[in-house]
Amino acid sequence: MGKTTLVSDIVRQSKLKTLSVNADQSKYLDIFSSRDLYKIKNFVAGYELLFIDEAQRIPEIGINLKIILDNLKPLKIIVTGSSSLDIASKVSEPLTGRVWTYKLYPISFFELTKIKSAFELDDSLEERLLFGSYPEILSLNGDRIKTEYLQTLSDSYLYKDLLELGGLRNSAKIRDLLKLIAFQIGNEVSLTELGSSLGMGKDTVSRYIDYLEKSFIIFRLKGFSRNLRKEVSKMDKVYFHDLGVRNILIDNLKPLKERNDAGQLWENFLITERLKYLSYTQKYGSIYFWRVYTGAELDLVEEKDGKLYGYELKFGKKSAKPPFGWKKTYPQALFSVINKENYLKFITGK
Asked: Which residue, 276, 267, 279, 344, is CA-closest to 311?
């Protein structure tokens, strides 16, 4: 994946003598889960930088990294993982104040502005809406090859950490849940209804969604509310980090002109790209959707620096007025329509 390539470039530029460990290989698990300083010290002796890839596979990785940092202080460490099921808590908690965390998303339009013009980005829009933005997809030529890659990704890698680390045994249920979510982009998701459709309890559905989110497959958007009774805030919307994954799950990679879900793809695309842009430019804040029980809604709300920004996401060149309820309840909030004419500035700043 892209993270490994990125770290390899960092390692090369650092010019430090580096020991690279892929934790997918079982021979490393005993050493880095041992809590045995002598064993670890002998293994890393003579190196200036330790790079551990797929570190979520190592039991007790956090406490073992703490042992290394406490006792082998000149040694620098880079740790990567493709899932936060284990790695986030097990690394961050033992190393509070001594760890910097970076989240890598699928390739963003913001990143692509470094090598592509606005015309080229706009020209590739439909491909991103259909095949997504995994690094490998951008390097493959031809729809058939891209489809095969997404199918392989969906059949194996997608559920790997869920089954191994999350303790989930039924990959069919996970796939069925994701399919149901895929058809509900832009709508609030009812855990009770999902559970009823799948023959699962509400709490089990919630646990599965939590695992899927920690595996960076989906993410949740909460409803914005100032605790007004008329505002919807108890159900979340769920979006996919990558639309290629979403589309292959429902077996639909047809062109936009042959689809009835172009608006859903557009909404998911803009929200994920905006999320990437805000993260990479460190424009910190919180994002939500907004809806009242009468039906008025906004696709995206951002709250930062004490200000509210409401966005309506329209496919094509459509325009819209702010909902009356939004203006009345939050008169100081700003409102914008994001459409095909201005979306690039919204997700790239240019």
From this structure: 267
308, 287 contact by CB (below 8 A): no
Alpha carbons 20 and 12: distance in angstroms, whole number:
12
What single letter denotes the amino acid at residue 102? Answer: Y
- Write out the H or E segment, with its range, that includes residue 336: strand 334-338
Reply yes or no on whether the pLDDT at 270 is more than 80. Answer: yes
- Judged against a pLDDT cut of 60, whether residue 86 lies above it is answered with no
Closest CA to 264 of 297, 282, 238: 238
Compute the average pLDDT of residues 17-29: 91
Instruction: For the chain, give every domain's residue range.
Output: 2-92, 109-348
**Amino acid letter, residue 85:** L
CA nearest to 248, candidates 126, 131, 143, 144: 131
pLDDT tens column, 130-174:
999 999 999 999 999 999 999 988 876 666 666 665 666 667 888
User: What is the average pLDDT across 28-32?
Assistant: 91
Give CB contacts under 8 A, 24+ apart, made by 106-109. Answer: 106/2, 106/132, 106/133, 106/134, 106/135, 106/241, 106/242, 107/2, 107/133, 107/134, 107/135, 107/138, 108/133, 108/273, 108/276, 108/277, 108/280, 108/347, 109/273, 109/276, 109/277, 109/344, 109/347, 109/348
Q: With pLDDT > 90 as the criterion, what percentage of the chain qualifies?
A: 64
Give, in order, the Cα–Cα distances in Å from 284 to each of 204, 232, 239, 278, 287. 32, 24, 20, 7, 10
